[in-house]
Amino acid sequence: MATSTALPKEVRAKYEPVIGLEVHVQLLTASKIFCGCANRFGDPPNTNVCPVCLGLPGALPVLNRQAVEFAVLASKALGCRINETSIFARKNYFYPDLPKGYQISQYDKPLAEFGHIELHGTNAGKGAGTTKRNIGITRVHLEEDAGKSIHDGFADSASSTYLDLNRCGTPLIEIVSEPDMRSPDEAYEYLTKLKEIILFTGVSDCNMEEGSLRCDANVSVRPVGQKEFGTKAEVKNVNSFRFIREALEYEIERQIELIESGDKVVQETRLYNANEGKTYGMRSKERAHDYRYFPEPDLLPLVVDAAWQKQIEATMPELPDARRQRFVRDFGITAYDAEVLTASKSFADQFEEAAKAAKNPKRVANLVQSELQGRLKAKGLTIEQSPISMKGVAFSADLVESGAISSKMLKELYDLSFERNKDFPLIYEQEGSPKQSTDTGALERIIDELIAANPKQVEQYKAGKKTIVGFFVGQVMKASKGQANPSVVNELLTKKLES
Amino acid sequence: MKVTEKDVQYVADLANLELTPEEQSRILKDLNSILEHIDRLNQLNTKNVPPMAQTSDKFGIDASKQGSDRFSYVMREDETRPSLPREVLMENAPDSDGAFFKVPKVIER
To answer: Which residues from chain B sit within 8 angstroms of residue A111, using beta carbons?
Structure first.
């Protein structure tokens, strides 16, 4: 953990952290935002570049319509209001991976504003799920990504920086939150939710390792009860949600310690070192923040009128929260299971398709809940790595539903599936498609033998102790090695005992 | 005087420019005369005039259309086009290993 400092609890309790997040998300368009170069990760360096994204003199940007539609869709999913007219602006700074010397972004008139994400406190530990809280989204704007600088790993890295400009011009949305979060846990939940929503819209793959989702955090502390914000630091260079939580923990304690010892927090950009669990000041000069924004003269205002917005919104898939509520309602499962089943859109789709195709959708959900989850947990697998697919679960549910197999047999077959890492229908076939015995002749013989062998219990039954029938059912199941259909057994037993 | 030597130095710094003392005083004079001209423009009452960063959103577009349609011609469909061959690209690079552009070691300023 990042908390290498040992701040006494009572000192920590005197302060309230204030956190705001800036998240950059790359959009999954085929081509770049302002030119026809391929927008693809992992290609050989400098093979997806042209005069426009290299910023060669005279080249002009032309906006990608799909990038606009993706950005609008994401903004709507985040509850934002779309500004019918937004303006592109140049953000000016010098860095070798930005060949134009400016980034085309949006400034005083962004694409969208006034959104929010609802938190349920799922990471808050005690009382989780009971505290709904809205975190405001200030704005969502459209911009282009910069290229990639490689500072290490080459023979002459001590004297040269290598540049791969393939990423230049990749369409991005920047999602800026209000400073509404009050703990690293809330920041973590916000990011988890944001990623989930974006994934459901399908506009990005949100892959943090490949940099298609990146996050910077603004954090400050203030004495509890104080209205004004403290001086903030910006934490950058954090490449997982877990590290962001750790970096925030560390940064909050660092700031409290500074204040407690009579020092002041300096407004600066700090980098997180995940190995050490510490943040370090970048020592960059303040002037680096003077970006001299001005309207981009090469692009017209972006106009997304009501009609176009409506068209885009019509492609909006059902969002995770809504889907969860529907699963709880339709399949009678718990909120927790609904959460697990909607971990990703593709998985939720698989589950729903399988459940709907099954004779009893609720049984599919119940099997996931009662038989699958525990086995997955024991093996440390996520539901997406399950050897038994959702189709397999649905298939097994139908077998139980029709009475072809008993739930005991199902359990054994599930065990085999996990043991051999094969899907249920295959295992079922390999095991010779077993059926529970409804052969009443064989059952009757077993029952007759049992009745003869246990006169005392038979007497108890006849004296009115009807519950003793459970003893006989157990014995029959044992004798039939669990292959008997319990309801048939029950029926036969009652008939014989009554006679 | 609208701007001072210090302002000129600051802006030059932001633009990564090194100015000789002669250039600095010439630019100081130029900037001030530009700003004086802007001051004169500022005498106009533009309270009800929306800001305009360029003229092309007033002219050269299909004025018979409204909303997004009016501006839709300035967008492209999401289709890829061939990029520059890397050999051609690197012909103009001051330094390269054939695959990457190379620049003097970047040190955070």
So the answer is: none
